[in-house]
Amino acid sequence: MLKAVTFLKESTQAGMLSWSAQSQAVARFGLRYHEVEALALENGIFPARYQRNRNMISIEEQLKLFRSRVAVIGCGGLGGYVIEELARIGVGHIVAIDPDIFEEHNLNRQILSTPATLGKAKVEAAVDRVAEINPAVTVTPIKDYFCLANGSEQLAGAMVAVDALDSIPYRLELAEFCTVAGIPMVHGAIGGWYGHVATQLPGDTTVQSIYRHWVAGKGIEQQLGNPAFTPAVVASLEVAEACKILLGKGELLRDRKLSIDLLEMEVHEISYPKVPPVELVVAA
């Protein structure tokens, strides 16, 4: 490793390590891109791919993102954009959870879907996409549903859980699990021109409050559908919240919801005082 570090330092220009130099290190020392990026950041060297981060994210913070593990539950409309942006900003480990394959109706909005990926598992497409855009990021694919029964295994080690689900019951289970497991949760939902985002820390009840009047069904998305732009907007806000949690900076959307109306171009903030959480029981 010492020779690799020396090579990286000698290859650095203006404090930056080019992608070409990283690739040479991979080939010369038999390392993975993940290992090369770790060596660079740990030795105060900024990979050049992150140079536009530097005015807002220090090298210490970039290393913190690289050492972070984020679980993305749902890899469709919201989740695909979330995974794309987490990988591009440099979050080092992403857990992608989704049981589904791509179908033709996904093509209008899901960034991981293409005609070539129809019939392919969404989590496999996530692995391939991240390997293409940032090979230093590790993706763990889990082709399964999230529920209370398997949450401990799926979200083990996660520092943040990003909700990209399209099912209210599963969202409520995720909120319940995150409270018990002590994992911050970033919640996002979309439908037509509309969407909302909220952040729930362990012990909070924002998500339960948002859906306190829910009776049955998957949600408004089923009636309104989804265009290409709504998931991109909401997912970007979710990624911003996740990064703030990981870096411990900024003010979170805690105990409040940001409601977005892209048709009228209006954004509203709605407060949610804490209420006693509803206990969910897993059927035997």
From TrEMBL:
Q: Which residues cross the membrane?
A: none
Which Pfam families does the UniProt record give? ThiF (PF00899)
Gene Ontology biological-process annotations: cyclic threonylcarbamoyladenosine biosynthetic process
The record's InterPro entries line, in alphabetical order, gives: ThiF/MoeB/HesA, ThiF_NAD_FAD-bd, Ubiquitin-activating_enz
Q: Could you list the residue ranges forming a coiled coil in this record?
A: none
Tell me one GO molecular function of this protein. Answer: ubiquitin-like modifier activating enzyme activity
- Ranges for domain THIF-type NAD/FAD binding fold come to 50-272
Protein's name in the database: Molybdopterin biosynthesis sulfur carrier protein sulfurylase
Source species: Citrifermentans bemidjiense (strain ATCC BAA-1014 / DSM 16622 / JCM 12645 / Bem)
Q: Which gene encodes it?
A: moeB
